[in-house]
Amino acid sequence: MDELKTMWQAIPPATPEELAGARGRLLQGMRPRRRVVTGPRLLAAAAVVAGLVVTPSIAGTPAHAVTRNADGTVQVTVNELRDPAGLEAKLAETGVRADVTFLAPGTRCAAPRFASVDGTYDGAPVADAGELRTLVAGARSSAAVQVTSVRTIRISPGAMEPDETLVVEFRDNRNPRQPWRLGAWLARAGTPVQPCAPVTDGR
């Protein structure tokens, strides 16, 4: 016991900076990870100007990639939030009409931008979380796009009708483990999708 006391006394006290750093590392480890979801009226992200919003790049990989799967679905990998027009062009090559937008952290697109096919974007307010889940579960917008990993989404063209536009909005999340948040909806056929007007997201 005396040896332990001697050892303890020999250890210099931690500085305020060291204590603050240790506290920060502890809180970081305890912080819960959020799940990336697609949901009704989730105004998650949008495009400001191509090239202005960039997440940390992955060495040797393109900003985004689009591949067609054997089952007809389309896989989209988004490594950097830049060049939305390029991503739209790649999706068009697979037969998917899309409006792709990227947004800086803490911002969103002012609503409304378009008329959705199923009310998941511009429908009436829901009463509670149960009603919200029911709306999402029965929506074609949810069937059209699913998040499959922190950097990939799967698009199901079979859930889209001719001339409908898939509106996808990504917001920089400033987190390499969850680099972006997603909002995804189907706009009605033959109706316009207005350009994004970025506003501060107070949520």
Strand neighbour order, sheet with most strands:
1-2-6-5
Spatial shape: globular
For the record, the count of structural domains works out to: 1
Helix/strand order: HHEEHEEHHEEEEE
Assess the beta-strand content as a share of residues.
15-25%
Oligomer: single chain
Count, helices:
5
How many β-strands, per DSSP? 9
Mean pLDDT, all residues: 77
Helicity level? 10-25%
End-to-end Cα distance: 54 Å
Structural class: alpha+beta
Query: What Rg, in angstroms, do the CA atoms define?
Result: 22 Å
* Biggest pleated sheet: 4 strands, antiparallel
Low-confidence stretches: 2-11, 30-57
Descriptive account of the structure:
- There is one protein chain.
- This protein is α+β, with helices and mostly antiparallel strands and 203 residues long.
- The chain has one domain.
- It contains five helices and nine strands; from the N terminus they run H-H-E-E-H-E-E-H-H-E-E-E-E-E.
- It has helices at 2-10, 16-30, 84-93, 129-137, 140-144, and strands spanning 64-68, 74-78, 98-103, 107-109, 145-147, 152-155, 165-172, 180-187, 198-200.
- It has a four-stranded antiparallel sheet. A three-stranded mixed sheet has the order 3-7-8.
- The longest helix is centred in the N-terminal third of the chain and has 15 residues, at 16-30.
- The N and C termini lie far apart (54 Å).
Offer a few descriptive terms.
203 residues, alpha+beta, disordered N terminus, 4-stranded antiparallel β-sheet
Topology:
Layout (H helix, E strand, L loop, with lengths): L1 H9 L5 H15 L33 E5 L5 E5 L5 H10 L4 E6 L3 E3 L19 H9 L2 H5 E3 L4 E4 L9 E8 L7 E8 L10 E3 L3
